[in-house]
Specification:
The complex is a heterodimer. By secondary structure, chain A is an alpha+beta fold. Chain A contains 15 helices and 26 strands. Chain B has helices at residues 4-7, 19-33, 43-63, 66-76, 91-105, 109-139, 143-172. Classes of the chains: A alpha+beta, B mainly alpha.
């Protein structure tokens, strides 16, 4: 009987797109398996979650994840956490927030520089690179394309910063997807034919609420609202203040300035917070310089403490319902996303507001990444019937006379969305027109967020009002603004200089990509050293074993001295970082042991001939 | 100006639209045009999808709302919309507004609330008349129908402002 060769066309297979949830506290990747089911990607440790913590040692490549978390207590100044809160932001945005690593004055543009010598997108890139490596190891193929999720309420600069992070990590970001929308996709609520869904997403650093309408596989976002500065971090911060005050009165010492003590206490506070989600009472324990601190914390007290934070989520929920034009009674399903929704008070607040029992079937830490994988499947063409129609969370406007904002694209417009405006000159011979784009809902420029300035340059000198330049503002499917200008009479593209208010320039991103490749070389060198050491270990172990053999004693003293010398030289090279030297010394040791090996071989042959074992 | 009617495959300047049907058209066109469908296409195709779907979204946002739809149709028909706000306010309404302003000045909450109710009722009448004009124009497109519609839109904008003022006052007192 013959057999059929089936060609699966593996050579023509397009590159796989993975989904990534780049979170404030934890990050993880997911992919669609052969059956079209989204699955999380485990790391070497079998864990899909990678803590979004990056340790920058004085020398060598950054350390990411649990290994970096270990460094939070011992080297807090060089260990970055919650960097997502700094993405696309300026120094003034984070004034009053406490981090145990240094945040420097912006040295270039408005981008924050961390004391460890990197920008927030580079920290994000380090996490993304770890996820990329996990995916490549798990899937056994190179991964270069990804869908990355962002908080729905992220503004243009924050989105651009996330995209930059992907580029620096060597990932082409095919789409930024809003986290609540991704969660809705993952929930398989597409099983439901139609209905209205509310997604409440309270993560480590951000809060989002989205209301979606579902019809035959189309997920149409009706409205979204949120606060990019509200999450579990705020609860931690609140508990920290209470604990620090309590410690100050008990020990007579203010520990808030001591980064190591602060981090140790922070870990203890977070552990207590987590435990309170399942237990009515926990003990907060903290040991420092031989002293012990212990406080009982009940859920009642905890609830009273965090109530103002939970309440802050309700305003955006109501505004979102208003904007969606939907009453509470019209919401068919409520989905909870984000680690902070494990807190019983959050859970019940949502239940009270929406008057329906929220869905919690899927792990709130994983659901966003799973949804990103579904979106990746949509982009790859593997998922055909489902389509996401998302909205822009913030209105786009232009500065006009007197610092007033004229809105061009209103919030909750389905994206891609566009608007066109025609500009002209105010005085004869004017060569430039400056356009200032802002994002936000307020009437005055100073109350909105500056997005970018566009300089329409090289306008031919003409009487005022004669030149006509049409500028098209387009918010793409990632929620990022694209602007193009056209000279109306000639129909020619008009040149324009763009200065983003809070972003990296292309040149900066390029430089970071190069720096990250250098880091990748560091990584590679480090791996080579590690591999050489493993080989040396094997060699040294073999020699130790051989020394117990009779053949060792049978060896000439010169031969024995040669082996000892070569062994010592290998040990010297072993702790250096030159893998070639280690390999050379292994080779020398190997040669020095040739007489030994020969003797052993002879003994073995003789032994074998005698039928005995050695 | 992009042709929003063409984007949704509707006859130009049709003023009355069935919203369920409009949504179906929007969803069907989205499935075809959305950039997600072209993630692996050439840069030119991706740009075309971006342009086409942004026009589609703008079209749906405009046409699903009767007011925006009417304004858009008027613009298409060559009318200058939205500039001469107060010109179409009838004398009877001016008298009403005078009393309303008095009530505001005296911070008479009851009187303000009563005025608000009258304005809301008036807005309802305007909306009903607008639907009549939509139907009349679709049956027999005449320029004077559009002229009346433009006047009606101006009046509605004026009344809507009065309602929001009255609502704001209602909250403060």
């Amino acid at each position: 009987m013959g057999t059929f060769q089936i060609d699966f066309g593996t050579t023509a297979k397009p590159p796989r797109i993975i989904g990534i949830d780049l979170g404030t506290t934890n990050s993880l990747g997911a992919y669609l398996d052969a059956t079209g089911t989204p699955r999380v990607i485990p790391g070497d440790d079998g864990q899909p979650l990678v803590p979004s913590v990056v340790h920058y040692p004085l020398e060598g490549a950054p350390v990411v994840g649990y290994a970096a978390m270990e460094k939070l207590k011992s080297d807090p100044a060089r260990t970055v956490y919650s960097a997502k809160r700094l993405m696309g932001r300026g120094l003034s945005d984070v004034a009053g927030e406490k981090f145990t690593y240094a945040i420097d004055a912006a040295t270039s543009g408005q981008v924050i520089h961390l004391g460890v010598g990197v920008t927030p997108p580079e920290v994000g890139a380090a996490v993304l690179r770890a996820l990329k490596q996990n995916a490549e190891a798990h899937l056994g193929e190179e991964v270069t394309q990804a869908v990355i999720t962002v908080p729905a309420y992220f503004n243009d600069a924050q989105r651009q910063a996330t995209k930059d992070a992907g580029r620096i990590a060597g990932l082409e970001v095919l789409r930024l997807v809003n986290e609540p929308t991704a969660a809705a996709l993952a929930y398989g609520l597409d099983k439901r034919k139609q209905g209205v869904i509310a997604v409440y997403d309270l993560g480590g650093g951000t809060f989002d609420i989205s209301i979606l309408k579902l019809r035959d596989g189309i997920f149409e976002v009706l409205a979204t609202n949120g606060d990019t500065h509200l999450g579990g971090d705020d609860i931690d911060h609140l508990l920290m203040q209470v604990a620090l005050e309590d410690l100050a009165s008990e020990w007579g010492r203010d520990l808030s300035g001591d980064a190591n003590a602060y981090q140790s206490l922070r870990q203890a506070v977070i552990a207590a917070k987590h435990a309170l989600s399942t237990r009515p009472e926990v003990a907060l324990e903290f040991h420092w310089e031989g002293r012990a601190y212990r406080r009982e914390l009940t859920r009642d007290v905890f609830d009273r403490l965090i109530l103002p934070i939970v309440d802050r989520t309700l305003g955006p929920c109501r505004r979102c319902l208003d904007d969606a034009g939907v009453g509470v009674e019209q919401i068919d399903e409520v989905v909870l996303v984000g680690g902070s929704t494990r807190i019983p008070l959050v859970w019940s607040a949502v239940e009270n507001l929406f008057r329906s029992r929220p869905h919690t079937e899927l792990n709130p830490d994983e659901v966003v990444a799973l949804g990103a994988a579904v979106q990746a499947g949509i982009l790859a063409g593997d998922v055909q019937d489902t389509l996401l129609l998302d909205v822009t969370p913030l209105s786009l406007g232009l500065e006009t006379m007197g610092g007033v904002v004229t809105k061009l694209i209103h919030r909750n417009s389905t994206i891609p969305a566009s608007a066109t405006e025609t500009f002209t000159t105010a005085i004869d011979g004017q060569r430039n027109v400056l356009i200032h784009a802002v994002q936000g809902e307020r009437e005055m420029v100073k109350d909105c967020r500056s997005l970018a300035r566009f300089d329409l340059k090289d306008i031919p000198p003409m009487p005022a009002g004669l030149p006509k330049i049409e500028v098209r503002f387009l918010i793409d499917a990632n929620g990022i603004l694209n602007v193009s200008a056209k000279e109306l009479r000639s129909g020619q593209e008009h040149s324009m200089e763009v200065t983003p208010s809070y972003g990296l320039t292309d040149e900066q991103v390029e430089a970071m990509i190069i720096a990250s490749i250098e880091h990748a070389e560091d990584d590679f060198r480090e791996r080579q050293v590690r591999e050489a050491r493993v080989e040396a270990d094997q060699m040294l172990a073999a020699i130790d074993k051989a020394k117990a053999n009779d053949a060792w004693d049978a060896l000439s003293s010169e031969a024995r001295a040669a082996v000892s010398l070569a062994t010592n030289q290998l040990l010297l090279a072993y702790h250096g970082d030159d893998h070639e030297l280690i390999l050379a010394k292994i080779e020398e040791l190997n040669e020095a042991t040739l007489p030994l090996a020969e003797t052993m071989m002879n003994t073995a042959v003789q032994g074998a001939l005698k039928g005995t074992k050695i | 100006m992009s042709d929003y009617y063409a984007a949704l495959d509707l006859p130009s300047l049709q003023l009355h639209l069935d919203l369920a049907n409009l949504e179906q058209r929007f969803h069907a066109a989205s499935r075809r045009l959305h950039p997600d469908r072209f993630a692996r296409a050439s840069a030119a195709e991706q740009q075309a999808a971006l342009d086409a779907s942004s026009v589609l979204n703008d079209a749906y946002r405009t046409l699903r709302d009767p007011l925006r739809r009417a304004e858009y149709a008027l613009k298409l028909a060559g009318f200058n919309v939205g500039e001469q706000g107060n010109l179409d306010v009838p004398a009877s309404l001016l008298e009403e507004v005078f009393e309303f302003n008095l009530a505001l000045e005296e911070a008479d909450a009851d009187e303000v609330a009563a005025a608000r109710n009258r304005f809301v009722a008036l807005r309802g009448e305007i909306d009903a008349r607008m639907e009549e004009l939509f139907a009349a124009y679709d049956a027999a497109p005449k320029r004077e129908t559009l002229e009346e519609l433009r006047g009606l839109l101006n009046r509605r904008r004026y009344v809507a402002n009065l309602i929001s003022t009255a609502s704001g006052e209602g909250i403060r007192h």
